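FORM 7B - TANDEM STRUCTURE REPORT

SECTION 1: FIRST PROTEIN
SEQUENCE AND TOKENS:
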Amino acid sequence: MKDTPIVFIIVIGSLLIALSFVVYYRNGGIPLPNISIEIPKQEVATGTPTASTPTKTETQKPIYPSKNKEKQYTPGTITPQVPTTYTIIYTDAGFVPQTLQIKAGQSIRFRNESSSSMWVSSVYQGNVPIYSALNQGRSVGKGGTYDFTFTDRLTVLFFNLNYKTHTGVISVE
């Protein structure tokens, strides 16, 4: 009879320890409340930027203490370095890249690296350019450039007026 309280305490203690392990492993090994973290929409940039290479915006997920003693990190935000000017190169084969997606307020520099002349223009409907603001106004030879800043959200088809089969598309969000 003297051992009954000790046995009772050992049984209750064992049950509490077993219950703790069930709760611990049921929650993925970390007994923390559910926490959701929103990751901002990724920036998409294509083409050849003349400034720095674009990076995406993301928020790091916090890493909580783990069973193994690995290095711990705290949550933080990565700030993107999105270029404001992209370069489209005109070659003997046409425009590179042929398709580019940018944001309103960003610029494009068209650079002629071909052996012929370049005259950037938006596609025409009849005798009228669809987006006349893009029209270069004059032809440039090898090494010549034409800079244009897009302020409107649109998709514009463009081509070289001197070689109408050399075309491209710019989407402005």
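SECTION 2: SECOND PROTEIN
SEQUENCE AND TOKENS:
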Amino acid sequence: MSGAPIDLYFDFISPFAHLAWWRAPAIAARHGRTLRPRPVLFAALLGHYGHLGPAEIGPKRAYIFKQVLRRAAERGLPLRPPPAHPFNPLLALRIAGDPTLDAEAQRRVIGALFNATWGGGPGIDDPATVARILDAVGVDGHALVAAAGEAPAQARLRAKTPAASSSGATTASTTSTASSPATIRSTRRRSPPGPISRPPPSAAAAEPRARQPLARRARGRKALVKVCFSTTMPPSRWRRSIPSQTAPRP
């Protein structure tokens, strides 16, 4: 492949990192780039920049979880919250950055850990559970879990924070190339710059609001209520609003 590789900085604690992980390989392939996973502790980035995480602000936490469910539904990607959130992602992050894994094994490991976190799995904070998850994708789970508890693995993860911040990473799902850092965002295409042609307004749309029939304005209010309701869906309905298919393999 040609072009600078894409570094994907991520933390399993972020649902947006889950969305980015399943999308990033296709983006890299489309642009002739290689993808380099870079696990980093999101809490360390927050400490580096000196601000709170989204989950620590009540209204922001509620909005973020609703937004990520919408994005997952748009992409046909199932998303189930982990058994507990927040959780300790250190074990999984150290394993994801283990240098003994080749590129293909690393992709399998990271995908399995994301599915165990945000795909309806058992979570990734219990060593025995993580070992079983890794064994299922063809790697030595017990050896990787044991190595993650040693000093070299801890030092490697700590060293990722300054590397991530110097590359412009500010979130738990940030991509960076040699020339420009950026956060992976929506797949929707934007219109090219230039004049936008619109159809001429209908007679009803051109009619002054005060003169429009009362029934028409009532219908508009009902539609607005429906939209408002759909964007303030209570947590008890989140799970029923998500597709049930398995996560795609990159």
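SECTION 3: OBSERVATIONS ON SECOND PROTEIN
The beta strands are 6-10, 35-39, 173-176, 181-183.
Residues 177-250 have pLDDT under 50 and may be disordered.

SECTION 4: SIGNATURE
Preparer initials: ____
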